[in-house]
Amino acid sequence: MKRNKPKYIALYEKIKNSIERGKYREDEKIPSIRQLATEEGISKNTVIQALEELEAEGYIRAKKKSGYFVEKIYNLYHDRKGTDFQRRTFTDSQNFRMNLSHSAIDTGLFPLRSVQRIYRDILNEKNEKLMCHSEPQGMPALRESISAYLAKYKQIKTSPDNIVISSGMEYLYQIIIRLIDKNAVFGLEAVGYDIIPALLEMNSLAYVDVPIDENGIDVNFLDKTNISVQVLTSVHQFPTGCRMCEDRKRQVLNWVEKSREKYVIEDDYDGDLKYWGRENFTLKSMDNKDRIIYMGSFSNTISPGTRISFMVLPNELLERYKKRLPFLICPVGNVHQEFLRVFLDENLYAKHINKSRNHYRKKREKMVEILKSRPEVRSILGEDIGLYLLVELDTDREEKEIIENLHKNKILIYGIKKYDRQNMYRYPVLILGFGAIEYDEMQETVDEVFNIMDL
User: Residue 321: its pLDDT value, please?
Assistant: First the structure.
């Protein structure tokens, strides 16, 4: 599905190539905004957008009331194959031509101008502290901003001192594993992430698969086991898409409060992408006994490349963290932490979330409408949150065969059985991510997928 380049990208590449080929030399003034707009037959705003990209990448510089001038370009720039920001879909692998995975986002929503402006301001400050190692738990200023964000949008009241910043959930789990008793038994949702069992096995830790239904985990099952740490995706269960009901949440809290050796890890991986309906409170917001380890991430909301996640540790585990892991250095650079702090403090994150919710809600509604017209679809499952839908197929064919055929045709998508250790689903179920699909191409995309499946 070939798309025309945006006009500002075309102008950006034209000027960049002219600079690299030597048509415009160092300190030479390039044509004015008005002249470029006239020559290219485009608006002044489009020209400005292209020039801002060139300035952000160091090809030109702006002089007040004088125009734009060419910067010194070293040889290493001549080997560049062009920037990648014009691609509007994120792919997990270059081997796939279509990304329908549950984690795919629309990169066209990326707040490029705000990000560029913030990073320019940060680097212009010449703050030496930003060039040093971060504190083990992350920069205090960012932890204060995250604490304020949690209080305002998640109803979670926590001290910045209890927040630990890291690069991805996998790193946070590695920290938690070192804070929990080595003989602890973990409880995992029997339909859930496949990476967590792998992490536990790698660290020689025991775990038990806990059955789930449409309301969450079976809490009665917990009482029959020696589980001391339960992992949950309570706000938006992955991958079933269900939300834990309030009664089940209270049952979980009652269970974890029975012993000081018990904890719950609550992974709120995409709770900000909620479209409508009642508020779905986190367990942490209801945690009066300080037994919940809350984990959050900015990857699904800003971009997967952001790779900034965090957790809120109970006081008891915070003390263990300080005693057992004093040598740890936060893996997220100070410059990137400072960017996120500004993004949160200037309310840009809230604006970005509102824009993303509206955008993805329209996509979700369109996708549901298209899927309902397909006779091969038995049902469409999933709540009013997140970037994917569960599509139950009316076929006797094996899910594995269907997925392998789609992968063979360079379409990245997953089936539920990859994550289902409970054998919860009788029919094949696609975990269909709609985040990266262009709105106007949804019908075409669905038609192609079903033509390939040939059910």
Answer: 96
